[in-house]
Amino acid sequence: MLKKLKFVVDKILESLLGTLIVVMVILALWQIFTRYILKNPASFTTEFLRYALLWLALLAAAYCFGKKAHLAIVFLKEKFSGKLLLIINIFTELTIIFFALSVLVYGGTQGVIMAKAEMSPTLFIPISYIYIVFPVSGVFIVFYSLINLIDLFTDKKINETEEVTQSTM
Q1: Where in the sequence is the domain holding 101, given as residue range(s)?
Q2: pLDDT tens for each residue of 140-164
Q3: Which helix (H) or strand (E) is 69 found in, with range?
């Protein structure tokens, strides 16, 4: 059940990120065309690309957490094994969850609330639409970290079963 849900969330993020990159490339090319060929740059593209890059970066960061492809300092963690490694991994996931909930979800929500009256100067959309990516990416990161925690406990039970099986042979 969780694997299917993770698969669906992965596909949604992949589609969203892929579409966002394509749109960004098209608009960047349009900006170049209008600036250098037409000598009349499109004013909305710069602002849109700035906000789209923020969305791309934060959603891609959440996606990387799901794929366990995020930046990590593993040289110290590689020195441990067994229960100590499990404890370190659990602590790491709990720290990520705490950060995502407190900074991205809570702090991001506060930013969205504070910015709801502000308007984007060129796109004429509420700035809160741009800032909503902070809590959204935070929710994705928490989701993926909870799955990672469940996997840690599930893998631990599998490992204990293998150790019992091997010791009885």
Answers
A1: 2-168
A2: 999 999 999 999 888 754 444 434 4
A3: none
3-state SS, one letter per residue, for 62-122? HHHHHHCCCCCCCCCHHHCCHHHHHHHHHHHHHHHHHHHHHHHHHHHHHHHHHCCCCECCC
Residue 152 in tokens: 């840690």
Distance CA 81, CA 65 (A): 22
Percentage helix, strand, coil, to 5, in the chain?
Answer: 80, 0, 15
The residue type found at 11 is K
Q: How would you class 28 by CB atoms within 10 Å of its CB: exposed for 0-12, middle for 13-18, buried for 19 or more?
A: middle
DSSP category for residue 117: T
- The answer to whether 169 and 146 are in contact (CB under 8 A) is no
Q: Rounded CA gap, 7 and 110, in Å? A: 30
Cα distance between residue 47 and residue 44, in whole Å: 6
Count: domains in the chain: 1
Residues in the chain: 169
Q: Token pair of 19, please?
A: 């579409």
- Answer whether 168's CB lies under 8 Å from 27's CB: no
Residue 101 is which amino acid?
L
Provide the whole-model pTM.
Answer: 0.84
Please give the average per-residue pLDDT across 36-56, as a whole number: 93
Burial 82-104 (b: 16+ CB within 10 A, else e): eeeebeebeebbeebbeebbeeb
